[in-house]
Design a protein that fits this description.
2 copies of one chain form a homodimer. Chain A is of the alpha/beta class and 333 residues long. Among the domains of chain A are: 1-46, lambda repressor-like DNA-binding domains (434 Repressor (Amino-terminal Domain), Orthogonal Bundle), CATH 1.10.260; 164-293, Rossmann fold (3-Layer(aba) Sandwich). Helix content of chain A is 45%, strand content 16%. Chain A is built from 13 helices and 12 strands. Chain A has helices at 3-10, 14-21, 29-42, 48-55, 71-86, 100-112, 134-139, 164-177, 192-207, 224-236, 249-262, 280-283, 295-310; strands at 60-65, 90-95, 117-121, 145-148, 157-162, 183-187, 217-219, 243-246, 271-273, 290-292, 318-321, 324-326. In chain A, the strands form 3 sheets. In chain A, strands 2-1-3-4-5-11 form a 6-stranded parallel sheet, sandwiched between helices. The longest helix of chain A is centred in the N-terminal third of the chain and has 16 residues, at 71-86. The relative contact order of chain A is 0.11. At the A-B interface, helix 4, helix 5, strand 2, helix 6 and helix 11 of A face helix 4, helix 5, strand 2, helix 6 and helix 11 of B. Chain A binds a DNA duplex (30 and 30 nucleotides) through residues 2-4, 12-19, 21-22, 24, 26-28, 31, 46-47, 49-56.
DNA sequence: TCCTTGATTGTAAGCGCTTACATTTATTCT
DNA sequence: AGAATAAATGTAAGCGCTTACAATCAAGGA
């Protein structure tokens, strides 16, 4: 079942069939409808390979994410996939893990699949060392690269980011305004967004007239038990704090567990603010105030930007989306 | 950059190049290594379209899941993707939602992409009405269909399922043995696995000498707040229960919240058992005893079976994997 | 040495589609 | 009406690869 069968049955040439397939306007309405009719009759579907060979595009976008089981990324994948499909594109997904080696390898694999663009979901794809991003900058000469919540300034690379800095800044400012003096900050990584968040925290303290104490800033594995343990041992060492802000909800869950373990009342004695407003932040008692980073909007914008790039439009290299603070039960201002 | 460039540079014909590309044994070692060398030199990657056109396979598997943001499915996707890739296959992902209409449409889309097989992740793909599954049975004549945690008995359809019945059965039996008399059962859907779970619950009650009370069996949306509300209103109506079993962790989280709201002690006054042992079950305080359905093993087996099918081996239509009960803090036996 | 055989390599015909260019048909203008 | 122009359709040459079949080569046996 191929284009020849259709052309024969419809009494036209394969070129004409191909034209109606591709929406070419140079086909009379009569012929078009006749051909469509035959296609339906025969249940014809064009062969993607042959099509790809000719057009050298597969209408497929590669999506890379470091870990699809992270609720934040899982959501992002869902929305990206939905938006792409709504625009007539398929997605092929790669879960890369975090090793640079792997990320590169998967990236090449996507390229070899002749995807029309690559979307990197999550901030884990921008490396600290500039040279480690060279492969992206290089590849961006040949096809658009979209960063969801990551930023790299290079032609052909488009970023959609959440305004992490101001999200954390304002949340911290509100904590300070409500009288918190010793705000602990827990972060998972020094990625692009991680750096912004941390800076937001520092700026808020500075503007709020509070000292920036290194002993209140800690890195922690993205794992609730790790966060709980860390807090317990910090407290055991005598560190005092009346609020915890985290770069990820999972750490905030750990903070709630820490408070429960020590019988500390939330939010009276300890305020807690998570990040991403994921399902995790709703699981605990009390439920965790968190920052909604608008994943859906982020993804919609990313895809819209990509379509703009495909359409040859003039498209901004970076789009910033504002986050929302979601007040739940671990804060009281 | 194509096969001709390589063949020219290596001083052989394109057929020979193609042969080394496909691991054809009829190539002398000397030629093979020479060609490989040239490929590396030129950084040659075969064009998937042309290849697909010739081979009529894309080495790509379609994965359908109803909702990638469900932690259980997100995990499944991760493992499936990993295993497929390890076997040299790519995956193209479709998040279908739950409407039959959509599922069918996405399925057709995958077929039109000429995927080599389709994996349906999750039990949401088998419909109650037999006729609604006809499209799967039909399609299975042309390509393998793999069900992860779903079952449909038809040629070309292969199922890997968790032994939900006995998982629930044994968990319930332990509750009963430890003296619980009124075990509430909350379920989300009457899918294949949903039905098995419910049956496991009923069988355990029966074998444990407990009556099966319809007022203790309730359907509930897969949402922790819905579960919490449902329990609160049931309790308000005077229903008594000393244990809650659920078909999904999210409902169990709701049960913990219910207990907190009413100041009921866990597990003394109320035992709770979740299902899937997902991250959610670790978020609450106390952490929820749950059933590990071995997603990873399920996925590994699915892919292994699929490779068996491709290899023409004799492959069982259904493989069952045993679940594990994970004792945490909401049970005390 | 010459033929047979098996191993290796080459030739060329597709695979199903797109598209530049050629051709035919319809339309408009004088 | 007939030429000039525009619209619709057809022809055929790829796109880069696989593979059946043909051709070549090396080695062993008579």
């Amino acid at each position: 079942m191929n284009i020849y069968d259709v052309s024969e049955r419809a009494g036209v040439s394969i070129a004409t069939v191909s034209r109606v397939l591709n929406g070419n306007p140079n086909v009379s309405e009569k012929t078009r409808s006749r051909v469509m009719e035959v296609m339906n009759e025969l249940g014809y579907t064009p062969n993607v390979f042959a099509r790809g060979l000719g057009l050298n595009t597969m209408r497929t976008i590669g999506i890379m994410c470091s870990d699809s089981s992270d609720p934040y990324l899982a959501n992002a994948i869902y929305y990206l996939e939905r938006e792409l499909r709504a625009n007539g594109y398929d997605s092929i997904l790669c879960c890369t893990g975090t090793s640079l080696e792997n990320k590169r390898q998967y990236f090449d694999l996507l390229l070899s699949k002749r995807v029309d663009a690559v979307i990197l979901a999550g901030s884990k794809f921008i490396e600290m060392e500039e040279k480690d991003n060279a492969y992206l900058i290089d590849a961006a000469r040949d096809l658009p690269i979209m960063l969801v919540n990551g930023f790299l300034d290079a032609p052909g690379i488009y970023s959609t980011v959440c305004d992490d800095h101001s999200a954390i800044y304002h949340a911290a400012a509100r904590l300070i305004a409500s009288g918190r003096k010793r705000i602990l900050y827990l972060y998972t990584s020094r990625s692009y967004s991680g750096t912004n968040k941390l800076q937001g925290y520092k700026d808020a303290l500075r503007d709020g007239g509070l000292p920036i104490r290194p002993e209140l800033i800690h890195q922690c594995a993205k794992d609730l038990h790790a966060a709980r343990s860390l807090l317990l041992s910090l407290a055991a060492e005598g560190l005092e704090f009346d609020a915890v802000m985290t770069s990820d909800d999972s750490l905030a869950v750990g903070a709630v567990k820490y408070a429960h373990a020590r019988n500390i009342s939330i939010p009276e004695e300890l305020a807690i603010i998570g990040y991403n407003n994921s399902m995790l932040s709703y699981c605990t008692d009390p439920e965790i105030s968190s920052i909604d980073t608008k994943v859906e909007e982020l993804c919609i914008t990313t895809v819209k930007t990509l379509m703009g790039v495909f359409g040859g439009g003039d498209v901004p290299g970076k789009t910033t989306i504002a986050a929302d603070f979601i007040q739940k039960q671990t804060t009281n201002f």
